[in-house]
Design brief:
about 230 residues, EC 2.7.1.25, APS, two-stranded antiparallel ribbon, alpha/beta, nucleotide-binding, APS_kinase_dom, 8 helices, kinase
């Protein structure tokens, strides 16, 4: 039967012969979304690219959805109001869902400041297929890095609604992986990528090298640019 979804009327869901499980079997991996969240300059893009490269080196197929990159195309009609931010993340969540259904490991790198928007993306996927990675880097550290000069502009009042300055960031409550900065030894981006890969192995998304227990709630140190 046809149905109505949002403003779309008389639409029908078309089933295909090839299923997600068929694509996963061909790729030798399980499709999922690794959602990297945190303040600007917390290292999201650096981790996303390192993880993407590490998976490729293992013969696994992934794809990075980057916040700035998608605003060059799919989301170039959106600004940074609360409403536009919500729509930005809604679209990304739907795209990420498609990548996961194709059997890919989709790496989404977005500030995604509002908890309800991230939770809405989680609800689009089967249980366990949304892996939230929180880069818990203090605002003072991110502002000191400021590789794009955005914090300086925000402090000068030239950028309005900037997360962490005059717009809030809501920390995750129950994310799968937390990476924190520490005064002690700090891992390289590749070591952080390995932390995520270990989680994927242990949760069955990649062929595990060895058996280990569930690592939900993993914590590690972080110190990277981006």
């Amino acid at each position: 039967p046809t149905t109505t979804v949002g403003k779309s009327t008389n639409i029908f869901w078309q089933e295909c012969m090839v299923k997600k499980q068929d694509r996963e079997a061909m790729l030798g991996q399980k499709g999922c979304v690794v959602w990297i969240t945190g303040l600007s300059a917390s290292g999201k893009s650096t981790l996303a690219c390192a993880l993407d490269h590490a998976l490729l080196s293992r013969g696994k197929l992934s794809y990075v959805l980057d916040g700035d990159n998608l605003r060059h195309g799919l989301n170039n009609n959106l600004g940074f109001s609360a409403e536009d931010r919500a729509e930005n993340i809604r679209r990304v969540g739907e795209v990420a869902k498609l990548f996961a259904d194709a059997g890919l490991i989709c790496i989404a790198s977005f500030i995604s400041p509002y908890r309800k928007d991230r939770d809405s993306c989680r609800q689009l996927l089967p249980a366990g297929d949304f892996i939230e990675v929180y880069l818990k880097v203090p605002l003072s550290v991110c502002e000191k890095r400021d590789p794009k000069g955005l914090y300086k502009l925000a402090r000068a009042g030239k950028i309005k609604g900037f997360t962490g300055i005059d717009d809030p960031y809501e920390e995750p409550h129950n994310c799968e992986i937390v990476m924190e900065i520490d005064d002690g030894a700090v891992p390289t981006p590749s070591e952080m990528a390995d932390t995520v890969i270990s989680f994927l192995e242990q949760e069955g998304y990649l062929p595990a090298k060895q058996n280990s227990n569930n690592c939900s709630g993993v914590h590690t140190n972080i110190d990277c640019e981006g």
